[in-house]
Design goal:
Layout lengths: L8 E2 L5 E2 L14 E9 L3 E6 L4 E12 L4 E12 L3 E9 L2 E2 L16 E5 L6 E9 L4 E10 L5 E6 L16 E8 L2
Antiparallel strand pairs: 1-2, 3-13, 4-12, 5-11, 6-10, 6-12, 6-13, 7-8, 7-9, 7-11
Length: about 180
């Protein structure tokens, strides 16, 4: 085995010269290889029928992984729905539910990754998702899906309240999807 020697210098201002990057093979298991984040600062609304999936592909994050590395998915979602309704949140990847990130459906209960219950009006609720996925090598795009089971059609709102009045009582919020490639 041969080793290449290179001069690495730590400069007085804290910068390092002579080292551009560590190869993936030099990183220990559990190391963070890369981080990708999408931040949504605007709002979105969708009129969704009872128990019908809104595959919200407009808010997503993509990461390209190598080998058998894993992806830590961190989601912070702010959302609302009409008064007294539930939102079922589903972690999705490439047009399908993420295996292992969605609960098993039992009887007539809804299978989801997370959920919110809104009281309507000026309320905005926050949901979070933390899931370690094993997607294999390639480019993987993660997004969210939404459902509700409250009968009829309901408006699901992202980053705003249901009523969204022009007053300081009605917040506008931020949501994010963060992906971390973890060395396997």
């Amino acid at each position: 085995q041969s080793f290449k020697t290179m001069a690495i210098t730590i400069n007085g201002d804290g910068t390092v010269t002579g080292l551009t990057s560590l190869p993936d093979s030099a990183m220990s298991v559990g190391s963070i290889v890369q981080v990708v984040q999408t931040v949504k600062t605007d709002t979105e609304s969708n009129s969704t029928a009872n128990n019908t999936l809104w595959d919200y592909t407009g808010f997503n994050a993509a990461i390209t992984t190598t080998g058998s590395n894993k992806v830590l998915v961190l989601v912070k979602l702010n959302a609302a729905i009409e008064s007294g309704s539930n939102i079922f949140i589903i972690l999705r990847k490439g047009g399908s539910d993420v295996t292992g990130a969605v609960a098993s459906s039992v009887s007539s209960r809804s299978a989801a990754t997370s959920g919110l219950r809104s009281t309507g009006g000026s309320e905005v609720e926050e949901a979070s998702i933390h899931f370690l996925d094993s997607p294999g090598a390639g480019t993987h795009t993660y997004n969210l899906g939404f459902k509700h089971s409250d009968g009829g059609t309901k408006n699901i709102r992202v980053n705003r309240s249901h009523s969204d009045g022009d007053s300081y009582d009605y917040p506008r919020t931020v949501s994010s999807i963060t992906l971390m490639e973890i060395k396997a």
